[in-house]
Amino acid sequence: MYRYDEFDQAFVKARVAEFSDQVKRRLAGELTEDQFKPLRLMNGVYLQLHAYMLRIAIPYGSLSPRQMRKLAHIARTYDKGYGHFTTRQNLQFHWPKLVDIPRILEELAEVEMHAIQTSGNCIRNVTADHFSGAAADEVADPRPYAEILRQWSSLHPEFSYLPRKFKIAVTGAARDRAAIEVHDIGLHLKKNDRGELGFAVFVGGGLGRTPMVAKKIRDFLPEEDLLTYVTAILRVYNLNGRRDNKYKARIKILVHETGTEELKAQVEKEFEELRESELKLPAADIRAIETYFAPPKLKARPEGDAVVSRAVKANPGFADWLRRNAHTHRNPDYASVTVSLKGIGEVPGDASDAQMDAIADLAEQYGNDEIRVSHEQNLILPHVARADLPAVHAALVEIGLATSNAGLITDIIACPGLDYCALANARSIPVAQEISQRFASQARQDEIGDLQIKISGCINACGHHHVGHIGILGVEKKGTELYQVTLGGSAREGSTIGEIIGRGFEPDEITDAVETIVDTYLARRESREESFLDAYRRLGPAPFKEALYGHEAKAA
Amino acid sequence: MKIVAANRLTDGETVWLGAGERWVDTIDAAHVAKDAEDEARIAAAGNAALSANIVVDVTLVDVEIVEGRILPKRLRERIRAGGPSIHPEIGKQARNAALNAA
After folding, report:
1. How many domains does chain B have?
2. Binning pLDDT at 50, 70 and 90, where does residue A1 land?
3. Interface of chain B against chain A, CB under 8 Å?
């Protein structure tokens, strides 16, 4: 993992001191709320319905056991004993007191963490494939580049007051697990014919009020030009992005209104001017950052196959978990484990302080000291010997985190919604919980197969509903909650935005509606091999519309 | 009918303007303005408390009286008054339940 150098450490400490002073002045009445609000937002402090909220950056979702224990300690000491992992691979505490936040930030700085740029119109936490450095299908580890982008974008003076927030995601595999096509910039790390590393560059993706899939403006950008090209994109956006209308201020609108070809020409022109500047990355610098992400020295554990096959026979629960929650590692003796934060009926993405401590222990004992947060709101142990999988599974059973549902219908993404969020119009979490309970049966989930449900409590789409195979958007209508359903969305390579299927559903109808959609899929699929998304793409919305609303048309 | 809701500056806790322009931490103790004049008065008191750095995010909330208790019309404000609907064991609802049980 990346370790802070002296510069990083001094920079974070200085920021803690600065914000502590700002909090002190606010509490003394020397700063008004209007003056303080932009300052607190720059430090990840929001105000929600019941309390302040502190959003902590987890760069590209990578955590050490020591950092995880610190998060557990903060949850226990300053909050209500839990934290919420988000779709941006960050962590939110929902109950911190303003008076405690300077101390919390001091504690975070002790473990090389902070809350800088987790809010505001700046470049936010750079996200990456949660299996980075471990996946068998990876061309190269995207984290060194994510780290270079993090260092470059931290308090970047030119890009601290952009027209709107700006999100960058990086993947190092053709199978996109980082949703790069729905980010402001998506980077796909790959090799060209000569074996050199570079990026396919996507621009102008995003969800929210106006969902758009990003456009590819470069098929291969040499790695040395990463910062130059990204700077060129940011400059074009900073200059031309709309500051007159908050809802049209993201780069996706600029790309849409300018046209991809014209925007690309503007970026290339800026790039040509910058190309030989100090932004060009020397190969030695890239390789130096890469050393922080050197693969762990994994011992040969050839007994894995025998151990796993014995455990599969002895324990059907382990067999289910292995099938869903163990991902193929580049080393055949190892696997990457998804620790599901989606227990049946639980709050998606929440983990208690005790669970966080236990995960830290597991990462130390079996996981080569690495933990990841996925944008799907689960935790990952990227390097576990297959021979240790039964022990890890047993330990996860003990702490209630062994649900065998990675990628299944109960592995639901949900934003905090109206239970916490001041922007929300409807609740998300109770809908997720009810759907999870309805489809609790492991056999039924396995029969349905891969199916992603994503739920947002307002149009800002933190729950990524537009790219859910089944997306659910909560709205407020005549003072009550109503849920709109979209079908056919996907955040994988070749992303698609889901289509609204028809009128919305009341809170007591939405789970039935999901079940109707699922039953329609099961009845119409060609075989078990045809996933929900494939079947929807083949069938189109008609049979689902008919199943959901047909009886109404007949009655009318 | 309206009440004034806000969050306390120091810890963010949801509070309401009560009798004697004191900030109270249960909605049951909020002062209900029943006419336009009283609404203007409590709104002014809320803004004064914002200026005095006692509270933030001051809002006027539409309420009705149901079975003798103050009930906000919007779900958002009802959740704000109780706590997250998914966690009956935390927030004001837990405190109120403990008080009722005692």
Report:
1. 1
2. confident
3. 7, 9-14, 50-53, 56-57, 73-76, 79-80, 83-87, 90-92
ipTM above 0.90, yes or no: yes
pLDDT in tens, A474-485: 999 988 999 999
Distance CA(A135)–CA(A217), nearest Å, equals 27
Domains in chain A, ordered, with CATH? 6-110 (3.90.480.20), 142-292 (3.30.413.10), 304-398 (3.90.480.20), 413-555 (3.30.413.10)
pLDDT tens for residues A134-191? 999 999 999 999 999 999 999 999 999 999 999 999 999 999 999 999 999 999 999 9
Chain B residues close to A481, C-beta within 8 Å: 75
Q: Is the pTM for the entire model greater than 0.95?
A: yes
**Cα–Cα distance measured from residue A94 to residue A280, given in angstroms and rounded to the nearest whole number:** 41
Please report residues of A whose CB lies closer than 8 A to that of B73.
479
Give CA torsion, residues A22, A27, A30, A33, to 10 deg. Answer: 80
Which among B11, B14, B56 is the nearest to A97, CB-wise?
Answer: B11
**Are B53 and A32 inside 8 Å of each other by CB?**
yes
Residue of A nearest to B73 (CA): A479
Relative to beta strand A52-56, strand A45-47 is antiparallel
Identify all chain A residues contacting B50, using CB atoms and an 8 Å cutoff.
33
Residue A539 sits at the vertex; the CA angle it makes with A533 and A542, to the nearest 5 degrees, is 115
Nearest CA in chain B to A47: B12
Q: Return the axis-axis angle of helices A251-258 and A226-240, rounded to nearest 10°.
A: 80
| Residue B65: domain span | 2-101
